[in-house]
Design brief:
Helix content is 24%, strand content 25%. The chain starts with a helix and ends with a strand. It has 869 residues and is an alpha+beta fold. Strand 5 and strand 6 form a beta hairpin. It is built from 15 helices and 37 strands. Helix 7 packs antiparallel against helix 8, helix 8 crosses helix 9 and helix 13 runs antiparallel to helix 14. The strands form 9 sheets. Strands 28, 29, 30, 31, 32, 33, 34, 35, 36 and 37 form a 10-stranded mixed sheet that branches. The radius of gyration is 28 Å and the shape is globular.
């Protein structure tokens, strides 16, 4: 297994004041998280089926006791010293053991999902480091859905004498907690009958925590557990039940004396209104020159997720359940399974990190894509009992923001689709098997549970068209014809909904002209290329899918509308540099019919044009559908020379390398000397008196989308300037590097960052054709990157030397069936290929390598190719 420091050698590091905002989410997909703070502290406990920013479990921490032979012992909380400010009307919280001695400095490094903290303190006779991680194996949703966090303490003796040591993990039994009430100490009306039980089983020693009162279907029902495989342990099932600070005083005095705990008492339920803290300590001896690993793991199991976010009576308060609770019966079972499989899961997790870390892609792109993959593990994402993935737009401090599966926000996300495509397909099942009405309109938010009740609001034009493109993406990744056949009736209805009388494109000329609700929470009126390119992309995607299903007439119909729209957008919206909006005021404020009826709130009395448009502005999103078309390989939706000019205009006009002079009365996500991409500017004038909301803001999800599109069009430096600006703002002092927020923390739109990997590598995959393609846009002479393709992932590399081209596709997980590769081989006359050590007959036509027989690669196997002139 690769050394962690070597593995994280290219990762960003944070120390001193730059640790302040670091919070690294640990947990599984759809399980909630607890975050590892930059100091080594555990913070933001969000395991209770709802967000919990700022939620700290009292008296929950790691501690060290150490004694070098011939010297007095030392005891420390295993955290870096607290960072200012220290102002408080009643002193710093006792429940955080703020007054106990800590370590003097720390350096935090991470590539998600592995973090390492190296501590510095000359008063401690050992060098101390912490490695924290959770299983993250692309394509393996169960392995990546474990409700647990793993901690490995590394104790190194640089001295000449042996050192005795003990590492202790103390945890508050929070079973019964509702996730929202204040948690100042062990006392809370929600607690009572909490039980901490010591167990030695399954190769582990630890504490199993429960509460006896709640029924099994109570939203607060659940269990927690901590354990270690260390052979020598002592424990305290519960701290002393006493007044003032006697409980923590008793614990600390006992542990600090000799590093041991009294192995008791017998478990007994806590009194009403209070709970207990339990501790387990692992004892070791660290010999001179040696490093000893002391592992611990934490698990939680709160099965009764309920809908606490909707006000609709049909779904309000309804139980949804957690998928993970169907995989493991309780928290101890999670730890036992993790102990049994942990070595394999850690090796696979590190293989993913190694593929990312060894890439020759720009570090800021790797940082952005890998950091925002953590969104999958936060309370932004749910995995309900039926196994389906669902997502808020983001997380508030104590409740999810903007539920659920918002099609227009999740249009930008590419991470789930490429790392966990089976989960992404469950969202399409919801989109087209549940949320698409008989008339083709889509409810762009999902009401859970799926009981037939649909969200009663007008459809979103951008969300609806983008979701059609997403079906095509999932078809490319899977090649699953049965999936495509299931989706097709809904796709057909959703696309042709645009053609209804009074709709988006009733004359079928390929241009949306009606009221277009969109991701800016308003309606655009009149033709614009933000909606337009998504519409054109949906037409092209539908054409390809219809073709694959043998529906030639439908394919031709969609092609004809697309060709008309392509021409008309170029003719009517091009200003010579970029595409604009032609504002067409609504003819009536009466709206449409039925569920789609709405009076346009943007049309004010006495005003000739509706508010909240952008008109002649340069909208950062105005080529959104073209970016998506690049991601899925649909080619140029608009004339390529116009596309290149327009996307470069977005960079030239909307990117600011210093926002000190930028004036905005809207929400602030970037300011002062920071750089950022504004959502819209008006370089030729004509800014409306009241432009669309958010126009003056900076959203990372759009920054990454524009950056990737710039890279696709050959503007690599410009794209990376935007990426580096966004990540520089998340520096650990001002913002958390693992929390890019917009309308809530861990905002889903930021997962557009995965498209940076796709754009820089020139990746494309079509499972139905067995085609894998790469065309690197950086360091093509010696290139290496991570790839994921439907059922496999690994590393791709290429090398060019005089007269020859070499490439290798290595599979690290899963399997892949290939019939062809498209690669930038250059002017080559012949090609030689070898798959898993055996020759593979291949022919070369231009940049396409075709195999005489399909090639199947499995984990640990490599396909190599050499092309020569």
């Amino acid at each position: 297994m690769a050394d962690t420091l070597a593995l994280l050698g290219g990762a960003r590091s944070f120390t001193g004041e730059y640790l302040r905002e670091v919070a690294f989410p640990l947990g599984g997909i759809g399980t909630g998280t607890v975050s590892l703070g930059g100091r080594g502290n555990l913070r933001d406990w969000e395991i209770f089926n709802r967000p919990g920013k700022g939620r700290i479990l009292p008296y929950t921490f790691f501690a060290l006791w150490a004694r070098r032979r011939g010297h007095p012992p030392v005891a420390r909380v295993l955290e870096r010293q607290l960072l200012p400010p220290y102002s408080s009307g009643f002193g710093l919280p006792t429940a955080l053991v703020s007054g106990l001695p800590r370590l003097r400095e720390a350096t935090f490094r991470a590539i998600y999902p592995l973090a390492r903290i190296d501590f510095e303190d000359d008063t401690v006779p050992l060098r101390i480091a912490l490695e924290a991680w959770n299983p993250f194996v692309p394509m393996d949703d169960r392995a990546s859905g474990v409700p647990a966090a793993v901690f490995r303490w590394l104790l190194t003796n640089d001295g000449a004498e042996p050192t005795e040591a003990a590492v202790c993990f103390s945890l508050l039994n929070a079973c019964g907690y509702n996730g929202t009430d204040p948690l100042g100490n062990r006392h809370n009306p929600l607690f009572g009958a909490n039980v901490n039980e010591f167990r030695r089983a399954d190769g582990l020693a630890g504490l199993a925590l429960r509460r006896d009162h709640p029924a099994a279907d109570d939203p607060c029902f659940g269990t927690m557990a901590i354990a270690t495989p260390a052979p020598e342990v002592t424990w305290l099932t519960r701290w002393e039940r006493a007044g003032w600070w006697d409980d923590v005083q008793s614990f600390w005095d006992d542990f600090a004396t000799d590093g041991g705990l009294p192995d008791g008492p017998e478990p007994d339920p806590s009194p009403d209104g209070q709970t207990d803290v339990g501790s387990i300590a692992a004892r070791v001896v660290v010999h001179p020159g040696a490093t000893v690993a002391v592992p611990f793991s934490l698990a939680w199991h709160f099965p009764n997720l309920a809908n606490h976010w909707n006000t609709e009576q049909a779904v309000k308060g309804r139980r949804l359940g957690n998928w993970y609770a169907r995989q493991w019966p309780d928290a101890w079972a999670v730890l036992a399974d993790l102990h049994a499989t942990g070595a394999r899961l850690e090796a696979q997790t590190r293989a993913y990190i190694e593929c990312m870390a060894s890439s020759t892609l720009p570090p800021a792109a790797i940082d952005a894509a890998s950091a925002n993959a953590s969104i999958l593990r936060t309370t932004t994402v749910l995995r309900t009992e039926d196994g389906r993935l669902n997502g808020f737009e983001g997380c508030g401090d104590s409740v999810g923001c903007c539920p659920m599966n918002c099609t227009h926000v999740w249009n930008y996300e590419q991470t789930v689709a490429h790392l966990f495509p089976t989960l992404e397909r469950t969202v399409r099942e919801t989109d087209f098997g549940h949320n698409t009405r008989s008339d083709g309109s889509m409810a762009f938010r999902t009401l859970l549970p799926l009981i037939g009740e649909l969200w009663a609001f007008k459809p979103a034009a951008d969300g609806q068209m983008g979701t059609i493109m997403k079906v095509y993406r999932e078809w490319l990744q899977s090649g699953d014809r049965a999936f495509l056949e299931r989706m097709w009736p809904g796709v057909e209805r959703a696309l042709e909904f645009a053609w209804r009388p009074g709709g988006w494109d009733p004359n079928r000329d390929g241009v949306m002209e009606g009221e277009q609700h969109n991701t800016y929470d308003i309606e655009f009126y009149g033709p614009n290329t933000m909606m337009g390119t998504l519409y054109l992309g949906a037409l092209r995607a539908a054409e390809e899918m219809a073709d694959a299903l043998g529906l030639g007439d439908a394919a031709a119909r969609y092609r004809a509308v697309y060709e008309s729209g392509r021409a008309r957008h170029a003719e009517t919206l091009w200003n010579g540099e970029y595409f604009v909006q032609r504002v067409v005021p609504p003819a009536s404020v009466e709206g449409g019919e039925g569920v789609h009826a709405s009076a346009p709130a943007s049309l004010q009395a006495g005003e000739a044009e509706p508010r909240y448009q952008y008109g002649p502005g340069c909208l950062s999103d105005h080529l959104l559908g073209q970016w998506f078309a690049r991601v899925v390989g649909l080619g140029d939706l608009l004339p390529p020379e116009m596309v290149r000019s327009a996307i470069h205009a977005v960079y030239r006009h909307n990117f600011r390398d210093d926002l000190s002079e930028h004036a905005s009365v809207q929400r602030v996500y970037a300011l002062n000397e920071e750089s950022g991409l504004l959502l819209c500017t008006w370089p030729t004038g004509g800014r409306p008196r009241y432009p669309f909301p958010y126009a003056d803001e900076v959203w990372t999800g759009i920054e990454y989308q524009v950056a990737a599109h710039l890279i696709y069009e050959g503007f690599v430096d410009e794209g990376m300037a935007i990426v580096m600006g966004a990540r520089a703002r998340h520096d650990g002092e001002r913002r958390n590097p693992w929390d890019e927020f917009e309308c809530g923390h861990h905002y889903a739109r930021a997962m557009s960052s995965w498209s940076l990997i796709l754009a820089l590598s020139g990746y494309h995959y079509d499972a139905s054709r067995g085609l894998l393609a790469f065309d690197p846009r950086v360091s093509p002479e010696d290139f290496r990157c991570f790839y994921s393709a439907g059922t496999a992932w690994g590393s791709f590399r290429q090398r060019r030397e005089a007269g020859a081209y070499e490439a290798a596709v290595e599979v690290r997980w899963g399997h892949i069936d290939l019939r062809a590769l498209r690669l930038p081989v250059g002017a080559a006359a012949r090609v030689m290929a070898e798959a898993a050590g055996a020759p593979a007959a291949a022919s070369l036509t231009g940049d396409l390598v075709r195999f005489a027989e399909p090639v199947t690669l499995r984990a640990g196997q490599t396909l190599t190719l050499r092309a020569e002139r």
